[in-house]
Amino acid sequence: MVPDDTPSTDDTPSDDGIASVDAPATDTSEPASNDFLAPGDDAPAELVDVLVYGLVGGIAGSVLSFVPFATVLGGAVAGYLCGGRPADALKTGTVAGVVMTLPFAAVVAFLLFFLGIAGAPAEFGIVALLVVGLAATYTLGSGIVGGYLGHYLRGRL
Fold first, then answer.
1. Is residue 128 part of a domain?
2. Which parts of the chain fold into alpha helices (H)?
3. Region labeled Disordered — which residues (predicted)?
4. Cβ–Cβ under 8 Å, residues 80 and 73
5. Does 17 map to a domain?
6. Is residue 10 part of a domain?
7. Domain count of the chain?
8. 47-63 vs 70-82: helix axis angle to the nearest 10?
9. What predicted TM-score, i.e. pTM, was given to this entire model?
10. I need a surface site. Which of 33, 53, 79, 101 has the fewest CB within 10 A?
11. CA distance linking residue 71 with residue 77, whole number of Å
């Protein structure tokens, strides 16, 4: 005898001795989204939000500059506050990274100006510009990474 593979709708045991249970009905009227994000978090952020929260994250990263990986923390603050989509978090982290780079670049430019007046060799200026470029790349990159991590944490916390 071939077992019957058709699903039964009652809770009576079938021929093989296992009771069948109806599966709960699922509502498919809403689009699927991440259960961890608040309603509206998957909507794109406005440009004003990206700039404001990027500025806040950049200031937070600059204030916390004595803490290791403060640039990541500043980007994370910006990405967490902004919400929106992951691309918005990357933009906000970029703004935070630029804001965190500005004080460093201003101090180095100020020092190079006074060293130039004092008669420092040109090679020193070239090396200093290389150092500023590497530091700006590190700060900007870690701000972007922090923005993404902040967005991820917003979805989990």
1. yes
2. 47-63, 70-82, 86-118, 122-156
3. 1-35
4. no
5. no
6. no
7. 1
8. 150
9. 0.68
10. 33
11. 10
Rounded CA separation 9/51 (Å): 57
The two structure tokens encoding residue 56 = 């806040």
Evaluate whether residue 31 is within a structural domain.
Answer: no
The pLDDT profile of the chain, 157 residues, written as one tens digit per residue, is 566 666 555 555 555 555 555 555 555 555 454 555 554 567 788 888 899 999 999 999 999 989 999 999 999 999 999 888 889 999 999 999 999 999 888 888 888 777 776 677 777 778 878 888 999 999 999 999 999 999 999 888 8
User: Is the C-alpha dihedral spanning 57, 63, 68, 71 positive or negative?
Assistant: positive
Domain, as residue range, for 142: 47-156
The CA-atom distances, in angstroms, between 56 and each of 29, 52, 67, 80 are: 38, 6, 17, 11
Q: What are phi and psi of 7, to 5 degrees?
A: -70, 140
Q: Which residue has the tokens 């809770």?
A: 11
